[in-house]
Amino acid sequence: MDDKTFSRDGTPIAYARTGRGPAVILVSGAMSTGGTLAPLAARLADGFETVVYDRRGRGESGDTPPYEVRREVEDLAALVEAVGGDARLFGVSSGGALVLEALASGLPVRRAAVYETPYADFAPSGAEERAAYRRDLTEALERGRRGDAVELFLRLTGMAEAMIQGARQSPMWAGMESVAPSLAHDDLVMGDSLVPRERLASVGVPVLALAGGASPAWMREAARAVAEALPQGTYRVLEGQTHMVDPDALGPVLSEFFAV
């Protein structure tokens, strides 16, 4: 990351810019850093100044305890100020939940888009499974078992056991363990994992809620519910896409939406 700004509590937030034009801040989801969204940033750079950043507790950014979701909203506020006070937001997965919370908190931005925020209203996994995940994740992190925490998350996403064990043997596992403590952050960002309809009803800017046509049906239902809860919400499906959305499919849609 080339630049740093400081959040309200003094935490350094590392970020990088590319391109020219109106500013778009990209917010990553769980188990990721700002670099994860660099390909999308490059795809948007022809028409926008795109900003990727390491969320607190990841990569080159700091992490001031105790963690609170409002502090991550303050991180976004610091980034908006750093790019001149006029920005658009895009969040993927739990990063989308953070974007929606920032909007509901009154963060002044022009527009926002979210991709497959995994609210569990329509998911096969019920409230009991989510509660068990939170309990087991807390225990694993308190005991310093970062690998177990990563396994818990991958299992929650539906990854097969054989693939999880294969991932443990891969070169990327060390990097996954390095950001494992931030899984607790994302868990708190997701709240009770249900669409926060009352909070979203107060959002006063246009928001595009996206989902992939090849993703599980419950992901599309969750995205539709987000759009319906927003006063200026729009729902759209990207045919053939999954949760690992292709920047070449997503980029033109975001460019069109953010150009207004």
Word description of this protein:
This protein is of the alpha/beta class and about 260 residues long. It folds into two domains: about 5-125 and about 195-260, 3-Layer(aba) Sandwich (Rossmann fold), CATH 3.40.50; about 125-185, no CATH class. It contains eleven helices and eight strands. Strands 1-2-4-3-5-6-7-8 form an eight-stranded mixed β-sheet, with helices on both faces. α1 crosses α11 (about 245-260) and α2 (about 70-80) crosses α3 (about 95-105).
Find the CATH topology of the largest domain: Rossmann fold
The overall pLDDT average reads 95
Proportion in helices: 40-55%
Query: Whole-number radius of gyration?
Result: 17 Å
Number of helices: 11
Tally of discrete structural domains: 2
Give the ordered list of helices and strands: EEEHEHEHEHHHHHHEHEH
The major pleated sheet works out as: 8 strands, mixed
- Beta-strand residue fraction: 15-25%
What's the total count of β strands? 8
Strand order, main sheet: write it out.
1-2-4-3-5-6-7-8
Large-scale geometry: globular
Specify the structural class.
alpha/beta
Given as residue ranges, the uncertain stretches (5+ residues, pLDDT < 50) are none
The first-level CATH class of the largest domain is given as: Alpha Beta
CATH architecture annotation name of the largest domain: 3-Layer(aba) Sandwich
Assign the CATH superfamily of the largest domain. Alpha/Beta hydrolase fold, catalytic domain
